Amino acid sequence: MSKLRIDVDLDKIRYNTRFLVDHLRPRGITVTGVTKAVCGHPEIANAMLEGGATGLADARISNIMRMHDAGISCSISLIRTPMLSQVAQVLDNCDVSFNTEMDIIASLAIEALGKNITHNIILMVEMGDMRDGILPEHLESTVSQILRMEGISLKWIGANFACLGHVAPSAGAMELLSSLAADTELASGPALETVSGGGSASLPWALGKGATGKINNLRLGEAILLGTDPVSGYAIDGLYTDVFTLWAEVIETKTKSNPNPLQMIYPIPSMQCVTLDSPSNTRSILAIGLQDTDAAGLIFPAGVTFVGATSDHIVVENTDCLLRPGGEVKLKLNYSALSRGMAAPDVAKVFHGDGALVDCTAANTDRRYSKRK
Ligand SMILES: *Cc1c(COP(=O)(O)O)cnc(C)c1O
């Protein structure tokens, strides 16, 4: 068996979820566990639910199908606006989807009517992240169009922060979202079930002291999985930052002191960083590459320095430890490295954790986590 694997500590996922659920409950905020970075792995989804998440969300239908196939029966929202080409599949596999485009919403409504079902819609409002979202000034007209359609039902409104823009939401932005929710309720009659105030980037606001207004949900991925804040990259106090560990095997270690003069080719591909003035010339190769993870998102152990990566190799320099072929290197992953690693077929996923929720008073706040996101 290949040693290339990601160890997953399910107890720490349960713990991180429980910690966030317990701290957000007094603020009137529920937690939806976001599983897209782990491809909807049912073990991880179940650990989030056992930790108190009230629902799940994923960006891909295939991941949602995987969770349903594994017997997960809670509501799972599709948190990327559906492709027009996948409307029927969305209706068959998701009871709720995030939406921002009238043509797609109309198509969902027509097909849902044909199937004699009602599909739930979450409208995403653009609040400055400049990724997906209806402009606030268009919300009212969108809502009134939706209310006239059969086959769909408006359940939530929500916003994204710091997905594309890396800017944490301000209290003012949250107040605006709250007042848009109030306006929507005035127009739509029945109260909106949920007003979702963003992802992990909204935690500093949600765990603060300001009024939460109408916001009663967050959709959390990174904080649960990595214990980090997506904006700063820092560990969040009280959460485990070592849920996932990537292990890669060493396949070469050599001292390459006097390489034959190289004919440099310009421009140098960005990932091949050729260090000519390096302090050490002992290099090792790990049997993992860009097809398996985001090499720039790995955190290496002390004494091991990243040199470069190709599709199937990661080259490192090692100063104070000798990496022998057959040995293993333990790596930490950021969100991007994790999501690629979890999707890579050659990286085994090994689950640990006996189901006991670890003691909530023994939180490990690992402050050594690198700032790199
Ligand atoms: C990925 C995603 C989230 C979760 O974000 P985290 O920063 O991982 O908590 C929430 N909402 C939407 C729409 C997303 O795409």
UniProtKB/TrEMBL annotation:
Entry keyword annotation includes Kinase: no
Which Pfam families does the record cross-reference, listed alphabetically?
Ala_racemase_N
The UniProt keyword set, sorted, is: Isomerase, Pyridoxal phosphate
Domain named Alanine racemase N-terminal is located at 8-224
This protein is called Putative amino acid racemase
Identify the InterPro entries for this entry: Ala_racemase, Ala_racemase_N, PLP-binding_barrel
Q: Which residues form a coiled coil?
A: none
Which CDD domains does the protein's record reference?
PLPDE_III_AR_like_1 (cd06815)
Name any one GO molecular function. Answer: alanine racemase activity
Cofactor entry: pyridoxal 5'-phosphate
The entry's cellular-component GO terms read:
cytosol
